[in-house]
Amino acid sequence: MHVVRSAILTCMMLAMLAAPGSADEPTKIRFMEVIHSLFYSPLYVADGKGFFEEEGIDFDFVAAQGSDKATAALLSGAADIVLVGPETSIYIQNGQSPEKIKIFSGLTATDGSFLVSREKVEDFDWQMLKGKTVLGWRKGSSPALYLEAILRDHGLDPETDVDIVTHIAIPARVGAFMAGQGDFGTYFEPDVTAIEQAGKGYPVLNVGNALGKIDYTVFAATDSYIAENPGIVQGFTNAIAKAQQWVRAADPESVATVLAPYFPGVSEEVIAATVTRHRDAGIWKTSPLVTPEAIEALQELLIASGILKPDETVAYESVVDASFAGAVPGE
What we know:
Oligomer: single chain
Shape: globular
Largest sheet: 5 strands, mixed
Strand order of the largest sheet: 8-7-9-6-10
Number of helices: 16
Distance between the termini: 36 Å
Radius of gyration: 20 Å
Number of strands: 11
Order of helices and strands: HEEHHEHEHEEEHEHEHEHEHHHHHHH
Strand content: 5-15%
Structural class: alpha/beta
């Protein structure tokens, strides 16, 4: 009797962890990405190569235009899984919301934005930003935190030495720079290329490479969604892992061919060059696992930025569920 009961329980567990749908009837989930960017190329590769379909998952790409908005959608039940900055899970853990969120997979290993200058710069030094206006991102967001950290590392006070503009909405940032606002700005591809090709600015360097590796964008869901849909979360993680490995090994031209439908108006030549630039800088993770060291480094950055108090740090296990990345075949 005990053997039969054990066998039944085993079958039930396997069913829960199995792909949530079939090839004919995939499970439709509500997904939201922070913005639509070539920075997230492995995500689009997972879709374009059919890796999500293989896991029985289907969704539409919806850009939230900010991690704060994507997280709000998650907590309100308007989204099931979101791509956001990992800092959001810490904010929610320390907040009043009874519903908490957990990171279950990582996508990018560091900041993928590039510092763009209005004028061509030779022998760039961060001190060149002193007294200048920089079009930045929302205060407390990942790109804002990274930029501020780099400025401090180079002896600049982000609050007094540099005028960082944070109130411009994401869709308007490129137009604002092209219209003449700001001396510098931080942008993701393909916006960097658009500004450069328009003759309105010049890329200087990759921000993330200048600071170092801290998980930058991650996939997250609420605790309740993860508990109720472990098969979907596992399948999603499996698809991302496959894409990360494929992007790592494929030639840039092949990656560009897969990505092209997701970026109409951007040539495959430009996309291939972007793939090479991102990959050479080590911007994309090669495994979905978000480590304790990454969360510790992130919290140190938040403390240095004055956003997180030292007594507000959270335990790794309270914001990351590493079981799904750990269960990816071959990991």
